[in-house]
Specification:
With about 675 residues, the chain is an alpha+beta fold. Among the domains are: about 90 residues, Calcium-transporting ATPase, cytoplasmic transduction domain A (Distorted Sandwich); about 160 residues, 3-Layer(aba) Sandwich (Rossmann fold); about 110 residues, Calcium-transporting ATPase, cytoplasmic domain N (3-Layer(aba) Sandwich). The two termini are about 45 Å apart. The strands form four sheets. It has a seven-stranded mixed β-sheet with strand order 10-22-21-20-11-18-19, sandwiched between helices. It contains 21 helices and 22 strands. The radius of gyration is 34 Å and the shape is elongated.
Length: about 675
């Protein structure tokens, strides 16, 4: 998006949107939780210090320390109590909010002030840790404004209007450097399009009369006249923007594990506490072994029931689960893998298919010389010198790439000997170089000029520029986007982890797509794919995986703004963080900080290791909790013993969670199955 004056093509710093309203709200929520926990912890520590350091004050003014404990409880848990009341009003009684409120109030009722406050403080800690990741915003799409054109220039009078006001069939004019505002067909002029923003294709696309032009393409060096074929709302760019928002809404957020657990656990322990308070006195009275029914008969059992409720608070469970997840998130971060929330650990761990974008994801993402193929009796260095000299006066991306390659190779460019330079739009160029007639461009140009010695066309991928001197073929230069060195190893690593399907979707042509797919070992791929088509193709893969693997998930890996819709739609979207667009990073659930596709396998391995540790934490905390519930029900465990057990379990869970910070090395496929 240019500056307000409209005279520059760069983005004004003052206009750059760095935060969305959703992102700001999420950040504020995390800060409020941290502030609440800090204040509640300070108050709790103050009350404990007063009781220990000044026992006489505590005995003479007990309401002071009790009041501070209650204040700590309110700061840490006022929202828990309010949520419990709201849910009860809606008929949703049994959840973790109800359990925490009743248990801590019960602790106060039997005089366990420090324990009641500590239980809520521990719960607040778990809530803070979890919300710090789960509530992050992934819906900021401010950078997509760079794709959406702001204006259209009418060919009839040169006036600038809103793209929304241009009907189908209107002739519009697109100047060099401008974005195409509406889908259409070129009817006048010739140029080349930078399509990377929309399709992800690295190679520039030469266009002339009859060529397709899509909204969001950037015009190169020539003036174009385009007849529109779609209204603004139906353009490829507008569809991509709509899909971003729609995909976010369709992607259901994983329900919190603790909430699911509480729906079963809370009614059981609540009913158990009620029965413990009421049934034993009645049974003892009817058996003649207890006093007459009255407060004296029920009092000890009510107290025991309240102790039972306090013991039932799942503090260790509440802490151990997020600690396990965030231990894994921390370990992944050390490896350069940023996981935006604990929800996505499960999606990564259950991955059965990975869909890759090509350009910038599996490949380097830059247009460069890949190979020189000189004719017989021609040295490669001589071919490169001829190519670089021929292209020295051109600003076409192909010419720039050849010039940069020649410079790196130390080849001298003889630009001063150029004469009679002429460009042939869509075909190439002709010139006189040091007295020799040179032709550079497409095979059609060579054939039309009667060049002799042309070899077979072949089936090479990428862009090919042919060169001839004095009517004789001298060789060709191949340009394209090379696969990253680690891409093939990344695909093999995914298959070793049990990922059944590895697929590639790209906006590049069939030749370039097939070449990269073969180089990295991917059998299934689709070429010439537009952004709005990527979503439907991805969904087809996802549906197939769900049908074949119950509970299996499908990941998408991409880097460009054109990948944002499918990144948002995927079970877990993975973006390249170093060179990826801001929109892709915002839409993704996982970001690879060094752009290496090999980290996709590392992310899956880390997620499966984390789930294993979380399962260990759950079993440990649950087993000890059930044991102390039984001891508390029979009167063998005091409240302090139960709290000590909870703290001990939390400590063990914490130590166990530290193991998640180290991703285990792959030693075989079976080891990493979920």
């Amino acid at each position: 998006m240019g500056c307000a004056c409209g005279h520059c093509g760069t983005e004004c710093p003052a206009e750059k949107r760095t935060d969305s309203p959703v992102g700001k709200r999420a950040t504020l929520e995390v800060r409020l939780l941290a502030a609440r926990f800090t204040l509640a912890a300070i108050l709790f520590a103050l009350a404990v210090i007063l009781g220990v350091a000044f026992p006489s004050l505590a005995s003479s003014a007990p309401y002071l320390t009790r009041g501070i404990f209650i204040l700590s409880w309110l700061v840490a848990g006022y929202r828990v109590a309010l949520n419990s009341l709201r849910n009860i009003r809606r008929g949703e009684v049994f959840d973790e909010n109800f359990l925490m409120t009743v248990a801590t109030v019960g602790a106060f009722a039997i005089g366990q002030w420090s324990e009641g406050a500590a239980v809520m403080l521990f719960y607040n800690l778990g809530e803070m840790v979890q919300e710090s990741a789960v509530n992050r915003s992934r819906r900021s799409i401010a950078d997509l404004m760079d794709v959406r054109p702001d204006s259209a220039r009418l060919d009839a009078d040169g006036s600038v209007v809103s793209p929304q006001a241009v009907p189908v069939g209107t002739l519009i004019r697109v100047l060099p450097g401008e974005k195409v505002p509406l889908d259409g067909s070129v009817v006048g002029g010739s140029s080349c399009f930078d399509t990377s923003r929309l399709t992800g294709e690295s190679a520039p696309r030469d266009v002339g009369p009859g060529s397709e032009a899509l909204a969001g393409f950037v015009n190169g060096s020539g003036l174009l006249v385009i007849r529109t074929t779609a209204v603004y709302e139906k353009t490829a760019a507008a569809k991509m923007l709509a899909l971003i928002e729609g995909a976010q809404n369709r992607k259901a957020r994983a329900e919190k594990l603790i909430t699911t657990f509480a729906r079963v656990y809370t009614p059981i322990v609540t009913i158990g506490a009620v029965l413990l308070a009421l049934v034993p006195p009645v049974v003892l009275y009817l058996a003649g072994a207890g006093p007459a029914l009255g407060w004296s008969a029920f009092s000890p059992w009510v107290s025991r029931a309240l102790v039972f409720l306090v013991i039932s608070c799942p503090c260790a469970f509440v802490i151990s689960v997020p600690l396990g997840f965030f231990g894994g998130i921390g370990g992944a971060a050390r490896a350069g893998i940023l996981v935006k929330g604990a929800d996505f650990i499960d999606a990564l761990a259950k991955a059965k298919a990975v869909v890759f974008d090509k350009t910038g994801t599996l490949t380097r993402g830059s247009f460069a010389v890949t190979r020189l193929e000189p004719a017989s009796c021609v040295e490669p260095r001589d071919l490169l010198a001829l190519a670089a000299s021929s292209e020295a006066n051109s600003t076409h991306p192909v010419a720039v790439a050849i010039g940069e390659y020649a410079k790196r190779e130390g080849v001298i460019v003889d630009a001063d000997s150029i004469a009679d330079y002429e460009e042939h739009a869509g075909y190439g160029l002709s010139l006189s170089l040091a007295g020799s007639a040179v032709i550079a461009g497409s095979r059609r140009l060579m054939e039309s000029r009667g060049v002799s010695g042309l070899p077979d066309k072949g089936s090479d991928a990428g862009t090919v520029v042919e060169f001839a001197r004095d009517g004789r073929y001298v060789g060709r230069v191949l340009l394209g986007d090379e696969p990253k060195e680690e891409s093939a190893l990344a695909v093999r690593s995914l298959r070793a982890l049990g990922v059944a399907d590895v697929v590639m979707l790209t906006g590049d042509g069939e030749s370039a797509a097939g070449s990269v797919a073969r180089a990295v070992g991917i059998a299934e791929y689709r070429s010439c794919v537009l952004p709005h088509e990527k979503v439907s193709l991805f969904e087809a893969v996802s549906d197939r995986v769900r049908a074949a693997h119950r509970g299996g998930t499908t990941l998408f890996v991409g880097d460009g703004i054109n990948d944002a819709p499918v990144l948002a739609r995927a079970d877990a979207g993975i973006a390249m963080g170093a060179m990826g667009s801001d929109a892709a990073i915002e839409a993704a659930d996982v970001v690879l900080m060094n752009d290496s596709p090999l980290l996709v396998a590392e992310a899956i391995r880390s997620a499966r290791w984390t789930r294993r540790i979380v399962a260990e934490n759950i079993v440990l905390s649950f087993a000890i909790k059930l044991g102390f519930l039984a001891l508390g029900a029979f009167g063998f465990a005091t409240l302090w013993e139960a709290v000590f057990a909870d703290v001990g379990v939390a400590l063990l869970a914490t130590l166990n969670s530290l193991r998640a910070r180290r991703i285990p090395q792959a030693r075989g496929r079976a080891e990493h199955r979920v």
